[in-house]
Design brief:
One of its GO terms (cellular component) is nucleus. It holds the Pfam family Ank_5. This protein has 128 residues and is mainly α. It has one domain: Ankyrin repeat-containing domain (Serine Threonine Protein Phosphatase 5, Tetratricopeptide repeat), CATH 1.25.40. The protein starts with a helix and ends with a helix.
Length: 128
C-alpha cells in the first residue's frame, strides 16, 4: 500500500466516524498518526477536531497523536479549529485530554482569541 493511498484510507476512516476502522488502521500504520495531510494543510488531529469527531480524536491520541500538533499556514492546533467551529464539546474534550489553551498560532492567536473573533461565546467561556 503506497503512502498516499494510506493517507487517503486514514482520512476516509476519520470522515466515516467508524471507530473500529480507524483503530485497526492505526494499529497497522502507527507512523501515520501525526502525518501531514492534503499537502501539509492539515493532519489527523486537526481534521478530526475541525469535524468535531471526539471519538476519532480519542483513537488518534491512543495511538500517539500529538494533541498540540500544528497544521496549515497559520499553525493552528486542533483546539483552535474546534474553537473556530464553536464545537464546545470538542473543546472540553481536548482540554480534558491536555490540549494547551495558551499555545499561539503563527499570528500570535490563542484558541480564545479565535473564539472571540468568531463570536463563539460559549467556546470563549470554556477557554478563558
Amino acid at each position: 500500500m503506497g503512502k498516499e493511498y494510506s493517507k487517503e484510507k486514514l482520512v476516509d476512516a476519520i470522515l466515516s466516524g467508524d471507530e473500529c476502522k480507524l483503530d485497526k488502521f492505526l494499529e497497522q500504520h502507527p507512523e501515520l498518526t501525526n502525518v501531514p495531510l492534503t499537502g501539509g494543510n492539515t493532519n489527523p488531529i486537526c481534521r478530526a477536531s475541525f469535524l468535531g469527531k471526539r471519538s476519532m480524536i480519542a483513537i488518534l491520541l491512543k495511538h500517539g497523536g500529538d494533541i498540540n500538533i500544528r497544521c496549515g499556514g497559520k499553525g493552528n492546533t486542533g483546539l483552535m479549529w474546534a474553537a473556530w467551529r464553536n464545537y464546545s464539546r470538542t473543546i472540553e474534550f481536548l482540554i480534558d485530554k491536555g490540549a494547551d489553551v495558551e499555545i499561539t498560532n503563527f499570528n500570535g492567536e490563542t484558541a480564545l482569541d479565535i473564539s472571540i473573533y468568531r463570536m463563539s461565546y460559549e467556546s470563549a467561556l470554556l477557554l478563558k
